[in-house]
Amino acid sequence: MPSNRTSRSIALFCGVLAAFAPALGQSELRKIKVGDKFEPFTLTDLDGQSFSCQPDQGRILAVVFLAAHQERSERAAKELIRIAADFERGGHPVDLVALISSSDDVPYFRRLKNDLQARMPILIDQEDRIWGKLGMTATPTVVVADPRGRISWIRAGHGYDFAEEARSELAQALGLEPRKAEEHGPVKALTNDRPEDRARRHLKMALLLEEEGRFDAAIAEIKKADELTPNVPEIRLLLAQLFCRTGRGGEAASVLNTVATTRPSDDAEVKLLSGWAAGNWVNPTARSSF
Predict the structure, then answer these.
(1) What pLDDT shows up at residue 80?
(2) What domains sit in the chain, N to C, each tagged with a CATH number?
(3) What are phi and psi of 288, to 5 degrees?
């Protein structure tokens, strides 16, 4: 079941854009971007001890924002812990820190940390001070700072490519891999031509169009992604969300009828969108938990 934070923070900008297009997951509410300085901060951990994050100490810092009782947050945490451990065994340590928003969630995260046998500090941002300062709009969200304290990667949401992207981005921040060329470059255009890659490009374009308020064009791009990778729940949920934003509740309802949910979180999203499509929910700007 969703936590109190999830219940009060749910928004309908579906995390599929972040899942398929992490480099462009910059919503209008986000206040940070790649290249910005990641400012130091101090919070208390699960045991009430003060803990300071100093992003410019010559080490890689990865901060992940998590929600309790959220499957995607758990998966992201597990994968990041495993990846950080792999780099540390190779002599390339990564400082991995998690942020949560409520002391009410301490028992849940204490159990999770114990189950994962993780040394990862979990800090409580009780008044959403860091969340608000950075403009976080989704959980999970990962922010990586390079050894100079500059943000090198922001990823909102969790999708099938999360672990692969996280490992690659951390390797780049550590200097173990060269920085990737932009995906619109000629090499990427030639090599990334699987249906999933083409769908990702359509979703990236949809995000840009959505941020410009060009909803009809964004919808067209999402439909192309759906044709390339049919029956992906997140894509159809995003399509339904944009139909809702443009007042096309009937079309949103039709799309929702085709969503093959496999997780309780997907069922919850369908219910929320169905309410919006029926005119019972009209707040598209609250924080996403997807």
Answers:
(1) 96
(2) 4-173 (3.40.30.10), 186-277 (1.25.40.10)
(3) -80, 145
- Which of 39, 28, 120 lies closest to 83, judged by CA? 120
- Asked if 205 and 198 count as a contact pair (C-beta separation under 8 A), the reply is no
Query: Tokens standing for 86?
Result: 């792999």
By the 8 A CB rule, do 93 and 176 touch?
no
Type and span of the H or E element at 152: strand 151-156
Confidence class of residue 42 from pLDDT cuts 50, 70 and 90? very high
pLDDT digits (tens, 9 = 90+) for 94-141: 999 999 988 999 999 999 999 988 889 999 998 788 888 887 767 899
Which region, left, alpha or beta, applies to residue 69 given φ > 0 means left and ψ of -120 to 50 means alpha?
Answer: left
Q: Distance between CA atoms of 71 and 22, rounded to whole angstroms?
A: 19
**Burial zone of 171 (CB within 10 Å; 0-12 exposed, 13-18 middle, 19+ buried):** middle
Q: Is the pLDDT of residue 194 over 50?
A: yes
DSSP 229-246: STT-HHHHHHHHHHHHHT
Angle value at C-alpha 65, between 162 and 152, nearest 5 degrees: 60
Mean of pLDDT over the chain: 79
Structure tokens at 213: 């308020």
Contact indicator for 76, 64 with CB cutoff of 8 Å: yes
DSSP code for 37: B
How far, rounded to the nearest angstrom, does the alpha carbon of residue 262 sit from its chain's CA centroid? 20
Look at the pTM and tell me if it is higher than 0.70. no
Structure tokens at 185: 């470059």
Give the whole-angstrom CA distance, residue 202 versus residue 192. 13
